[in-house]
Amino acid sequence: MKRLKLKELESLLQRVDVFEQPKLLLEQYPTSPHIAAHMLYTIHTTFDDIESKLIGDLGCGCGVLSIGAAMLDAGLCVGFDIDEGALNIFNRNVEEFELANVDMVQCDVCSAMTNKLSKAFDTIIMNPPFGTKHNKGVDMKFLKIALDMARTAVYSLHKTSTRNHIQKKAEEWKIKMEVIAELRYDLSASYKFHKKKSIDIEVDFIRFSFK
Question: Which domain of life, per UniProt (predicted)?
Fold first, then answer.
């Protein structure tokens, strides 16, 4: 299979369906095709952490990161999400692209089930809930679980405003943390309480690896 170029990957990811009725409590915001493509392409070309690798995608939603990783020749991508509706859309997306190297599991990522998957994946990629509104601290729960499940590295998006806190935690957990890029995450108005059509949030794209 020929190697996809970044522009081709982004163009394909624009065809991925997203949430029909996003759930506020689950902080369901889609990762844009632009951000997803750049994240995955960097993981693939700079760190060689996708091709032929076993990849977990925590809080996968409608599956844009898993689908993109599968297109970059991951060995297998497994998406984990609590929401059946999101996984139904994810499944439709996988069928649409006729991808054989994607699977999905419905579960609460923060539950005990994920403990059984310690060091089961080469790479974890995720856009976890940012831990706003009613979910304070959930971003760090996702990160701790991801680090337990990964053998090589975890790639994740976090609000830039939490960088110092995450840095302290990384030191405490003896994990190497590298901010690969600073992004502007464009959140379009998905919920009734959003007054503006879209809002920019400053987000770090971080690679965590084991020292």
Answer: Eukaryota
Tell me which amino acid residue 74 is.
A
Would you say the pTM of this structure is higher than 0.85? yes
- Which range marks the domain in which residue 106 is found? 6-16+30-210
Q: Are strands 121-126 and 102-106 parallel, antiparallel or unpaired?
A: unpaired
Amino acid at 10: E
CATH of the domain at 149: 3.40.50.150
Segment 49-73, tens digit of pLDDT: 999 999 999 999 889 999 999 999 9
Nearest Cα residue to 131 out of 163, 158, 112: 158
SS3 150: strand
Residue 21 within a domain:
no
Other CB atoms closer than 10 Å to residue 103's CB: what's the count?
A: 11
